[in-house]
Design a protein that fits this description.
This protein has 5 helices and 2 strands, in the order H-E-H-H-H-E-H. It has about 210 residues and is mainly alpha-helical. Helix 3 runs antiparallel to helix 4 and helix 4 crosses helix 5.
């Protein structure tokens, strides 16, 4: 076979391969397009679902200020904190009374005291003054820590009780309302504060008898 025949044969084979290549992919294109369209429709069907009707939700609110005032657990925590605060103030008052007594004695006898005795009195007064300041700081820090602990305990235990109560009453959401809070308006017909106080007290007293 001469060179001219080889060239013609190769050209024919090349055209045949190109035709097969085009036919192969042109047959698959409709399938790919159909898949894309199907996937797009699937996404749209998910995105275009109708939102749930808000009227299907059972919602109420509780006035948190009123709850804190009449809830037995809250009243107990406040009473405990007041006792601790009163005890701390009593300790400081006792120390301060001793301090005032020393200062008064020093002022009255300063003129007849010897230099060494006067210096010792002043040193004692200064040490007691520093002791009072340190005690005030320590008691203040302790009280702040106890107050935070009580607050966390109140929030956590109340939330646990409300999970039970809310589920039993069939509510989807129970919101917290207070004057000056983030919720600017609450429909009074949705106020269940008194009911919740009753349920909370019942649950708390049942678990703390």
């Amino acid at each position: 076979m001469n060179n001219k025949s080889i060239i013609i044969t190769n050209a024919i084979m090349g055209i045949a391969i190109a035709i097969l290549f085009i036919l192969h992919f042109s047959n698959e294109s409709p399938k790919s397009s159909a898949n894309v369209e199907q996937n797009t429709n699937s996404v749209l069907s998910v995105d275009e679902k109708e939102p749930e009707n808000i009227n299907d939700f059972k919602i109420a609110f509780v006035n948190s200020d009123t709850l804190a005032k009449y809830y037995d657990f809250s009243k107990k925590l406040k009473a405990d904190l007041l006792k601790k605060q009163s005890k701390a103030e009593s300790q400081i008052k006792k120390k301060y009374a001793n301090y005032q007594k020393l200062v008064s004695e020093y002022q009255q006898a300063a003129e007849i005291m010897g230099q060494n005795e006067a210096a010792q009195k002043v040193q004692t007064i200064n040490m007691l003054e520093q002791e009072i300041m340190q005690l005030e700081q320590t008691l203040s820090q302790n009280y702040a820590s106890q107050e935070l602990e009580a607050s966390n305990k109140y929030v956590n235990e109340t939330a646990d009780y409300l999970q039970i109560i809310g589920a039993n009453l069939g509510y989807d959401y129970i919101l917290s309302y207070r004057v000056g809070g983030p919720m600017l308006f609450a429909n009074p017909s949705l106020d269940i504060t008194q009911d919740i106080i009753g349920y909370l007290n019942e649950e708390y007293n049942k678990n703390n008898d």
